[in-house]
């Protein structure tokens, strides 16, 4: 069984379990306040119990590593890295917050980095630019100039996103968090 984790959003957390074939896909999306650190493990536990799974059933973890909220990114990466260290034969995969929202369209996907800045990636003809930090006005000017859709919608359909992007998750032995701003 596979476990998908996205804790990067300040308003909700997404957990999903599924088989490699995308069968038995089950998702839990929980809207939260600022207490994610206190409730995250319980969210995972309740999800697993609801679908009659135990943590030892997990063979692969697919984690969204950021950018996103500092606490959310930290919680997701610590949880995934801890499971990788404690459970034998578990595989760990990572992807950034823009890439999971890619749906095969030509567009710029952006994430608010506060202070009138955004992290953005350009997707065109199956290619993508590196994730970069840009001023919002420069990003909007670029999109208008080249008539490219600007996608700032952080919400996505998990099952569709995984169908499009599962093969693009990068295998890793340890996830390095991708914070909106550098940790001090």
Written overview of the protein:
By secondary structure, the chain is of the alpha/beta class. The chain folds into two domains: 2-98 and 156-172, Nucleotidyltransferase, domain 5; 104-151, no CATH class. The chain contains four helices and eleven strands, in the order βββαβαβββββαβαβ. It has helices at residues 36-50, 70-86, 136-146, 158-165, and strands spanning 2-6, 12-18, 26-31, 60-64, 91-95, 107-112, 117-124, 127-128, 132-135, 149-151, 170-172. The strands form two sheets. A six-stranded mixed β-sheet has the order 3-2-1-4-5-11, covered by helices on one side. Strand 6 and strand 7 form a beta hairpin. The protein is globular.
Give the oligomeric state: single chain
Mean pLDDT: 91
Count of distinct structural domains? 2
Fraction in helix: 25-40%
In DSSP terms (H or I, runs of 4 or more residues), the helix count works out at: 4
Strand ordering within the main sheet? 3-2-1-4-5-11
Uncertain segments:
none
Principal-axes geometry comes out as globular
CATH architecture of the largest domain: 2-Layer Sandwich
Number of strands: 11
- CATH superfamily descriptor of the largest domain: ATPase, nucleotide binding domain
C-alpha termini separation: 36 Å
Q: What's the CATH first level of the largest domain? A: Alpha Beta
| Structural class based on helices, strands and sheet pairing | alpha/beta
Major sheet description: 6 strands, mixed
Provide the β-strand percentage band.
25-35%
């Amino acid at each position: 069984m596979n476990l998908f984790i996205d804790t990067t959003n300040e308003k909700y957390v997404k957990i999903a379990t599924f088989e490699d074939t995308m069968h038995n896909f089950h998702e839990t999306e929980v809207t939260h306040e600022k207490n994610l650190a206190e409730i995250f493990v319980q969210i995972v536990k309740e999800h697993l119990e609801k679908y009659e799974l135990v943590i030892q059933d997990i063979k692969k973890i697919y984690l969204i590593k950021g950018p996103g909220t500092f606490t959310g990114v930290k919680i997701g990466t610590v949880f995934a890295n801890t499971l990788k260290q404690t459970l034998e034969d578990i595989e760990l995969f990572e992807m950034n917050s823009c890439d999971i929202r890619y749906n095969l369209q030509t567009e710029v996907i952006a994430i608010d980095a506060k202070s009138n800045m955004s992290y953005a990636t350009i997707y065109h003809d199956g290619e993508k630019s590196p994730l970069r930090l840009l001023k919002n006005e420069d990003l909007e000017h670029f999109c208008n100039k080249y008539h490219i859709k600007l996608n700032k919608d952080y919400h996505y359909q998990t099952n569709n996103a995984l169908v499009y992007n599962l093969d693009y998750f990068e295998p890793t032995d340890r996830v390095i968090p991708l914070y909106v701003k550098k940790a001090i």
